[in-house]
Amino acid sequence: MANRAKYGVGMWARLVGGASLAVLAVTPALAQDQAGGTAADPPGEEIIVTGIRASLEQAADIKRDAPQVMDVITAEDVGKLPDSNVAEALQRVTGVQITRVFGEGQSVSVRGLQQVRVEVDGRTLLGWSARLSPPENDQLGRSSGLDSVPSSLFGRLEVRKSPLASQAEGGLGGTVNLVTPKPLSFKEPTISVRAQGVYSENTDKFEPAITGFATTKFADGRIGVMIAGEYQKRTSTTQTFERNNFLNRNYTGTGGGAIPTPVLLQYEQFVVDRSRLGLNGAIQFEVTPEFTITADALYSKLKTGRHQDFFAFRLPTGSNPVTNRVVEDGMVVAGNANGTVTTAGQIRNEPTESFLYGLNGKYENDGLTVEADGYYSKGTIDQTIQIITLQATAAVPGAFDFRDQTVPSLTLGGTFNPTNYASYNPANNGVRSNRLIGLLEEWTGKLDVSYEADSGVTISAGVRYTDLHARSNAFRSQVTPTRAEIEPYLKLINAGDILADIPGSFPRSFLSTAPTFDYVFNRAQAAEPNPDPNGRSTLLPNLQRDYDLSEKTIAGYLMVSGEGEILGVPYKANGGVRIAATRLSVDSYVNVGAVSTLRNDKNRYTTVLPSANIAFNVTDNFLVRVSGSQTMQRASIADLAPSTFFNATNLSVTGGNVNLKPPISTQADVSFEYYTGKSSLISGAVFYKDVKDFIASFVTSGVDTNLDPQGRVLVFSRPENLASAKIKGFEIGIQQFADFLPSPLDGLGIIANYTYSDSEDQSGFPLVAVSKNSYNLVGLYEKGPFSARLAYNYRDEAVFEFSEGRPSFIGSRSQLDAQVGFDINRNFALSLQAQNLMPKKSATKEYSVNEVALNSYALSERRFSVGLRAKF
Fold this sequence. Notes:
mainly beta, 5-stranded mixed β-sheet, receptor
């Protein structure tokens, strides 16, 4: 791992070799289906999408005709979005920022707000996603993470920045709608297969990504059938410093008082093995020219396995924990302390599945449209964790320094030898097995009716009912094994085995462990078995983390739309109101010592959400849009569960809050779009959001002997309605090809956009997850058989939580990706991709006050892919 020289020629040899084995196919182009969208193509007219430029042209047409502020990405061909990950494709959109986990995009923020609703064809896709180092599990909001579904299943990605009353509520920042193709949108039978090989630099592996697509029609074109699938596998390495925080500790004497002090220095490496399977299918039946029935289904399975080793130095929590302390900006950033040393090896597996089944019927005749839609969405997880920990026999003296380092330096003193098993106390050894079984499921039915009068005015109304159920059951058994019992599972970490790409002085050689599932699970559950023989697991129930939530929502809307002229300027407008009533009930446990008592908590609220959009066609190619609305975001399910989870390893306490109010944003938007060519445009917008009851994690520290009889200082984190805030900003973008240049330079193009979001809550702090500046620069070239794309994106720092009233930040980051494509002939094409070309620039940093006061650092690797496409 430490030797990078071998990756030059050798890496490209692997890629070329993989290309010779790949069998890929991509089909003739797809007329993108408009299901779940807002701007339909003319009936029966096929849009052929081939290449970068054609996809940009189609996206511009959809944006121009949309009844709301919206940006669109369309596939260049069947199953060929510009990035292999949905989130990474969306980061090219003006005003969109993404969060990465394990080096892959997982979630998005729109105009600085991370509370974004994610839909598939207007429906909720439920699922579970994980952070780099979650407590025991971490549910990502109310929808599946964007890393859980393969991008090749979708023909179009929509980012709706202003709402329509007819669209489901639930996106404070906006809504991302992933649109799947439908079989009746294809003119001819189509079959495609595509295969790629992906190479990850640090793990030195070349792994497959295979996609397939097929569609045809029967009965004189009245019945259409479509199926698509993708399989991806990737092994990656993430090098981290993490789990630190700066919390107040008391000091006496000169310069004393409560001073924020580091809690934990932990050096850790993850090797993550992910495989992703996605399937999508649809059957359409045109019963009559006016009435069409569509049945469709989507399935996704994401298996994430990780192995990690860590070395941890925990500082004491009493008075005067650090001697020879150095204080900068009010924070202890260097000094000496007698800390607790812990090392561990851990294996963690979290297979997740998402299911979405839907049935839709649509009738259109003489201005009347009636559409009924029903679906069932389900997400599951069965997470297991096996860990063997070692702990030093006594407090270990250490000198730490956070200054002028990528990660803090740590030098150990005394007689402790981190590579010698005799330095560890067998009484502190730990074998722990965890299991989490989670279920999310939603039944939804809706009915929409609209009528367009002869005057051109359309009146629309509808109702939507949702029944959401979420359940989490956790299990945890642990035991202190003997020294001899642990010896077969010891593993020596040598210098160069861990954090090889992160400079600095810290323990690079230490004794870790190599747990196996069978040993840890059987040993732990034998020591602490489940007393209920009918329980979901044989491990001891961990009731602190259990909850069972039921939420029912009924929503209705009324909307009027039409067009006309004002002072000779044509316009299209819509306005309406959406009312949603929500009731929820959650069962969880109150834990006092060893006694857990089941309790039930309830909450209910009603929201009224008006919205209006108007677009002025100042000229044929220049549009001005004005919109005003209110949007809301329900709290995430895990945040609503008031259960309290105590992690004895990290001395952390997390839990939810059933009384959370849904944040509501009152917002206004003025934007313009100037279409300078079929695939070229200049756009801009000024926006304002006034957010009430914003939710963020609030971190404190203290002692709770009910949770921890040893009376140690614990770190508590719970969500609260912490803030009201205002966000104001602007965005500007350009998409332009150099048609005015002589050939071959007329194939050059550029996509550039910049977003400025200035936020402030009532205490003067920036809003959580809002980066003030972000931008994208994409250089394009497409001429004849050759195409290329170089994409750079940047976002600056943002607040991510509050610790004892102080904001903690996630640092600025940028990423550079590249793509090259070559059409060998009419049937075959070669493609090469390189992602994360500047790993240190894309590293994730979290810190308090400034970058010196580091809480975490995560470095991901470069990856490269090669593929061959064939058209039939």
